[in-house]
Amino acid sequence: MNNAVLSNTVLEKETKLSRRTFIVGSAAIAAGGLALGLNVPFAEAAEAPDAPNEVNIWVAIKPDDTCVIRIARSEMGQGTLTGIAQLVAEELECDWKKVTTEGISPGRNLASKRAWGEMGTGGSRGIRTSEDYVRRGGAAARLMLLQAAAAQWNVPVSELTVSDGVITHAASKRSIGYGAVAAAAARLTPPDPKTIKLKDPKDWKIAGKALKRLDTADKLDGSKVFAIDLKLPGMLNAAIKDCPVFGGKLKSYDESKIVGMPGVKKVVRVQDSAVAVVADTWWRARTALAALPVVWDEGPGALQSSATIADMLRDGLNATATNGDRQNGDALKAIAEAPKKLEAVYATPFLAHATMEVMNCTVKLSADGAEAWVPSQNLEASLAALSEASGIPLDKCEIHRHDLGGGFGRRGGTQDFVHQAVEIAKQFPGVPVKMIWSREEDQAHDFYRPISQCKLSAGLDADGNLTGLHVRVSGQSINAMLNPKGVVDGKDMRQLQGLYATPGDAQLGYSVPNLLIEYAMRNTHVPVGPWRGVNTNQNAVYIECFMDEVAKAAAKDPLEFRRALMKDYPKHLAVLNAAAEKGDWGKPLPAGVHRGIAQFMGYGSYSAAVAEVSVSPEGKLKVHRTVLAINCGHAVNPGQIEAQVQGSVAFGLTATLYGEMPVENGRMTHLNFDTYEIMRLAEMPKVETVIVPTYDFWGGVGEPTICVVAPAVLNAVFAATGKPIRSLPLKNVKLV
Amino acid sequence: MPKLNINGEVRDVAVEPDTPLLWVIREQVGLTGTKYGCGIAQCGACSVHINGEVQRSCSIAVGDVNATDLIVTIEGLSAGASHPVQKAWAAVDVPQCGYCQSGQIMAAAALLKKNPKPTDKDIDEAMTNICRCGTYQRIREAVHMAAGVGTTGRGG
Could you read off the pLDDT of A414-439 as tens digits, one per residue? Predict the structure, then answer.
């Protein structure tokens, strides 16, 4: 399955605002490469407004002054929809109480020459890579509305003011609402976006405020329609099972054994590795699938297990060749000559995304086109997958938007579920077919967080100063799996995320006189992909936990030891200090409670955490309190940042305490929440969020703070027990 | 034909008796606010009230439910999302993706009906539904808020 299912849309763009060049390239793994190069003129994008009140592509205003703000990015709980609306509304100067939103479909975006830009929602990019053009969109609409009012009243536009969507001409004591001039404004020539001066964040009234989310109401009464909830006339339902061993094939199945079972319409071979049962309802499809005898050709993957994979990774730790590195000085020599040396090997497991809404996709293929309803983090990748799999041209395909019941990286570049649903729907022309994975299927066929090990060696001088550090990560590559173009001449720096020398995105915040950081690529037969926070999670555990081991060997306080290495990294240091201060670092604690600290950078943002834990005499861990600090540059909605930080703690702690996906006989073994445990409310520590924006860059929010949770907690456990934790999850570790 | 009383309405459901109540609610009755998450009573996304008790409907066979059993789903919890739990959820801005929240709200409503002033420990013990977005801190805050305004409404 895995080779045929990837539709990894890679978007590249020039940074020039007025004329953006986008290239959509389906990563050419599957049937033929769909590739279109499009030149998108920003200013001319508002061609053929679909309503007289559409001021521009981002803003439509109804006669009753309701402002409809268009949203291209996907919403999966992270709050991007509300944040983007705040940025547009801020520049538009409309009444926030009258704001509603409308999602743009990828077909509409494509038909408009991608006027709405990139739709992919991952890498914590939703706001930070669209803030400029959405704010200009809001500002351009404001200028046009003002211009229209000035023309109507025959006064200079400079004499007008606007507040909360009401335009006022003070001299003549006239005022008018946006709704009354929107139609006239829509007919005006839009201003050149380059000439628009955006507001100073200091003057923000809507953005920068902890406003409530716009998308809560239908999540409270069951009325929100997730894709899994879709009902269409005549719709059929499909349950699917893919070969449990990755890389295996479907050999045969005995359809006669389920003949006559209630509601069953058909058994369908899907690609070369899966079988689906289609029935009137999903439960009947699933019941029949469970009763269907299936024979698999499991292939060579069946010989693999957690133990064989661990052996392969250990080999990578000790090999000399690298698949990407950075260095300064001579770390190996410095460590060899150091009076005090340390070495440690860490390991982190495969993890499943476990979105609460399982993978699903509804497809209807007919003579005049293809439609799909799919929860997607990359609606354009879904569109490309629909076209590729169906053979129907892109301009006859459309994806209907549904907000996601969780994404976490699972539903972006990997559109395997769209390919499967199309193959099933091909058997039922003109009939919509909804394919839903069982939880077990969802756990068994993820693109998992890559497994890795890391060997770290350090040299300390007689005064306990770090003179050399050697970090060697051995593990699986996401790029090798999903984005082969990202591996250049065998080098793949993405697996060293958070350890980069270059500033701006995921820079290591320490200066070490002799430093060598290397990556050894060791790919398994298990598919891997981005998992919320991606490689910052594992790399932060390795660096930040080892830092505490080294600090202890140097007989130094972990915070002071870090600070001494961070003089060249003031932004990293400022966030670390913010967490330490709010987290009462150095202040007395109740008996038995211990603190740990960690900092890291990812997605353009700086994060740090302090955790307070206790370990009972029986070895039971309790996390009492966490303090997380983040500098994400601009804080568009502090309330939602706080929510994301709280969510980060739950996500990060689940991985720390419970997360693992062991491999036996080539297949995943933890197929539901009884074995793949997720942290629940009772274990959720108090989270205090410290937002320290510096307003000189735009960083992400959905992911960056996850990676500091595990090392802060593990370092606190180290402080409590004196024993470093080098392998996750903690449920497998005897703490005392 | 088996009958179910859901949200005060008695309906005929023509379905195999071993079908989980969850899937009858979703596919035969057509109420989709009650969610599938795990199918093994682990996550609580499928929580409904049966005779006032919160139950995980994915693991109850419809054949084991009587026509006299009063089933309340999220759609029937209140008119216009007016239950104190729903109001508190809105006030605290609890949901992120929202997928698990029907179940969380049903669990919280059942808790408050039995225990109008729950302690943190009571909340720990009663609120065992999984939220993958990690809204737990706000759930706790919202349960306390709802307790502060008392519980009225149908709630099952």
Answer: 999 999 999 999 999 999 999 999 99
Both tokens assigned to A611: 């955790």
Percent of all residues in chain A with a pLDDT value above 70, rounded to a whole number: 93
Of B75, B94, B112, which residue sits at a domain end?
A: B75
pLDDT digits (tens, 9 = 90+) for A612-650: 999 999 999 999 999 999 999 999 999 999 999 999 999
B138–A77 C-beta distance less than 8 A? no
For helices A131-153 and A178-186, the axis angle rounded to 10 degrees is 100
How big is the CA angle at A395 (ends A394 and A399), to the nearest 5 degrees? 70
How many whole angstroms separate alpha carbon B73 and alpha carbon B81? 12
What is the number of structural domains in chain B? Answer: 2
Closest CA relative to residue A542, chosen from A586, A503, A576, A508: A508
CB contact under 8 A, B95 and A403: no
- The answer, yes or no, to whether residue A32 has pLDDT greater than 70, is no
Question: Is there a domain that residue B154 lies in?
Answer: no
Can you tell me the distance from the alpha carbon of A126 to that of A84, in angstroms, rounded to the nearest whole number?
A: 8
The answer on B12 and B68 residing in a single domain is: yes
- A306-351+448-732 and A227-298+359-436 share a CATH fold: yes
CA distances for A311 relative to A213, A318, A349, A364, A474, angstroms? 48, 11, 13, 46, 11
Within-domain flag for B155? no
CB contact under 8 A, A217 and B93: no
Are the beta carbons of A323 and A492 closer than 8 angstroms?
yes
Among residues A54, A150, A149, A148, the alpha carbon closest in space to that of A102 is found at: A54
**Spatial contact of A517 and A496, defined as CB atoms under 8 Å apart:** yes
Contact call for A356 and B130, based on CB within 8 A: yes
| pLDDT band with cut points at 50, 70 and 90 for residue A194 | confident
Query: Cβ B36–A684 below 8 Å, yes or no?
Result: no
How many whole angstroms separate alpha carbon A668 and alpha carbon A679?
20
Residue ranges per structural domain of chain A: 42-217, 227-298+359-436, 306-351+448-732
Hey, which CATH number is domain A227-298+359-436, 3.30.365.10, 3.40.50.2300, 3.90.700.10, 3.10.450.50? 3.30.365.10
Q: Does the pLDDT value for residue B76 go beyond 50?
A: yes
Size of interface A-B (CB pairs under 8 A): 178
Per-residue pLDDT tens over the stretch A548-585: 999 999 999 999 999 999 999 999 999 999 999 999 99
Indicate the CATH number of A306-351+448-732 among 3.30.1540.20, 3.40.50.1860, 3.30.365.10, 3.10.20.320: 3.30.365.10
The question of ipTM being above 0.90 is answered as: yes
Interface of A with B in 203-242 (CB under 8 A): 212-213, 215-226, 228-229, 231, 237
> In chain A, positions 315-374, which contact chain B (CB-CB < 8 Å)?
354-358
A80 contacts: CB under 8 Å, gap ≥ 6:
A71, A73, A74, A121, A126, A127, A702
Give mean pLDDT, residues A117-124.
96
The beta strands (E) that lie in A44-98 are given as 54-56, 59-61, 67-71
Domain A42-217 CATH (choose: 3.40.50.410, 3.60.130.10, 3.40.228.10, 3.30.365.10) = 3.30.365.10
| Alpha carbon distances (Å) from A453 to A46, A474, A542, A670, B79 | 51, 5, 9, 21, 54
Residue A15: pLDDT band (50, 70, 90) is very low
B21 and B50 fall within a common domain:
yes
The boundaries of the domain holding residue B136 are: 84-148
**What pTM was computed for the model?**
0.94
Sign of CA dihedral A144, A148, A153, A154: positive
Strand, helix or coil for residue A457:
strand
Q: Which residues contact A660 (CB under 8 A, 6 or more apart)?
A: A349, A350, A351, A670, A728, A729, A732
